[in-house]
Amino acid sequence: MMRGDDDIENGQAPSGARQRRPNNDNGYTYTYTSLANVSSISNAQHATNYTPDVDELKKQSSGYTTLNSFTQQRQSSATQICCSCCQSTAHLTEGPNQPYYRDTFNDQPWSCTLGTGEEHGIWMNTSDQAGTIMALLVWLLLGYSAWTFTILARTGGIPPILSAIYDILCVLALASHAKTTFTDPGTVPQSAVPNERMRREMGTPDQPLSMCSQCQTFKPPFSHHCRICNRCVSRMDHHCPWMNNCVGAGNLKHFILFLVYTWSCSVFSLLLLGWNYFMCADEDCTFNGVLTQLVRIITVLSIGSLLFTSSMLMNVQFGLMTGIGTIDRLKKKASGSVADSTEEPIPLKDVFGIGHYVSWLFPIDPLFEDYDRVMGFSTPQRLLREEMKDDPARVYSPSGLSKDMLSI
User: What is the DSSP letter of 285?
Assistant: First the structure.
């Protein structure tokens, strides 16, 4: 029930807390890259054909204290509404000379346009009509099931409190579905550069950094080019037509929540209908006429949904435990190299973030401990903001350029 996407080998998501580690008295060595590294920047520019304009970057970055990303605002407001204790565990170690700082600058486009390109302000796949129909069908079926249980509660077939619980599960499933559909799955921008760890481990003649021949940009490990979205997606698992979107590092949490809540709806509905069938002893709780047909339809839908979501949950769980996505696993099976895999399991904090555990239950954007590490790439804009955040006096020079950049 999923659609695999071809990728060309060797050829943005919410802001988050990013980690740094002290090096010596001269400052910090960033865990992903440094603008002062001459060879790394030259390699990255060669790989992406991208030359950052320093004055433009500094002009954009000068407002990072006043501009907040839409995703960060949504996360903050939803967290405050849900529970006052839903706070990031990194807030105790944020600030000057602390291991974390929070990058809240919104470098996403402000245009109110739909699409999957970097210039579009609202992420939405509009090129796949079949995927759009299948995504709308999910809303139709879940809406039908919620309406059916509401009718059963009004006629006395099931207790109203149980119908309300089922409707809440449906709302959470639909919210997770919408969040998965309209969230950037972790696309790689044209300005992407490898982080420090990848340059250290892969930037060698034996393990060269790869480049996508379709996007003409740096290609992080475990990323694939989706021909439907026409973008490279970081840690891409597969393109799901039911979501009308790719499932990657940016929306994996929302996809898992959709599967969990849909699975819960299926189990809950089968338990309610089974309880009514075996335990109903009077005419008040008996389904008659049209209600009988509605119950038969919802029973078939629940069984099919239970089987599908159970298989998908096992597939996702296998991917988290092995660190191998669906596309990579199929390629390894075809080549017979599954037993030789050296990938590490994906930590839950790289999926659900470092926020309070209560925030894991809601389809709100996760706050990652190290955004660049999770996504597998960084950008010159983010690196310059980090340098300015640590030591503004170190960044500026009398000529208006970064002193580290002047040394390049």
Answer: G
